[in-house]
Amino acid sequence: MGCTSAIVFTCFGAAYGTAKSGVGISAMGVLRPDLIVKNIVPVIMAGIIGIYGLVVSVLISDNLSQKEALFTSFIQLGAGLSVGLAGLAAGFAIGIVGDAGVRGTAQQPRLFVGMILILIFAEVLGLYGLIVALLMNSKAQTDVTC
């Protein structure tokens, strides 16, 4: 369950961030096609959120065994939920900020720096979940018997 929740929730967040930012880039590209490549940053940052879930999911699946202690299973579930829900929140934030920021940058190019700063803080939310998940997963013991 931890492995599944890690990849599913982070991919939901990454998909939402990519879609929402992509809509903003498409709307902005009609009037200012010269800014499309410059404003692709929110889409890239949303894609990185999915990688966080992939990393934790692979680490959890590497430690799976047929006989496993309840403690280890709960730790792995907590690690998956930690990175998954943090990635979901980060993806929502990146999508909303990316959409509004890209549309605003088309009208006032000085908003680009502010948008990037806000996107960095939104990305860090997902990074917090990744760090907590890695710490939790390192505490999971595979040699415990029931």
Automatic annotation (TrEMBL):
Entry-linked CDD domains: ATP-synt_Vo_c_ATP6C_rpt1 (cd18175), ATP-synt_Vo_c_ATP6C_rpt2 (cd18176)
Record's keyword terms, sorted: Hydrogen ion transport, Ion transport, Membrane, Transmembrane, Transmembrane helix, Transport, Vacuole
Keyword hit for Membrane: yes
Pfam families reported for this sequence: ATP-synt_C
Any GO CC annotation of this UniProt entry: proton-transporting V-type ATPase, V0 domain
Coiled coil: none
Subcellular location(s) of the protein: Vacuole membrane
GO molecular function: proton-transporting ATPase activity, rotational mechanism
Superkingdom as given in the UniProt entry: Eukaryota
Membrane topology: Multi-pass membrane protein
Domain named V-ATPase proteolipid subunit C-like: residues: 1-60, 77-136
Main location: membrane
Transmembrane segments: 43-61, 73-98, 110-135
Family annotation (NCBIfam families): V_ATP_synt_C (TIGR01100)
Function field: Proton-conducting pore forming of the V0 complex of vacuolar(H+)-ATPase (V-ATPase), a multisubunit enzyme composed of a peripheral complex (V1) that hydrolyzes ATP and a membrane integral complex (V0) that translocates protons. V-ATPase is responsible for acidifying and maintaining the pH of intracellular compartments. Proton-conducting pore forming subunit of the V0 complex of vacuolar(H+)-ATPase (V-ATPase), a multisubunit enzyme composed of a peripheral complex (V1) that hydrolyzes ATP and a membrane integral complex (V0) that translocates protons. V-ATPase is responsible for acidifying and maintaining the pH of intracellular compartments.
Family classification: Belongs to the V-ATPase proteolipid subunit family.
Protein name: V-type proton ATPase proteolipid subunit
Source organism (scientific name): Fonsecaea nubica
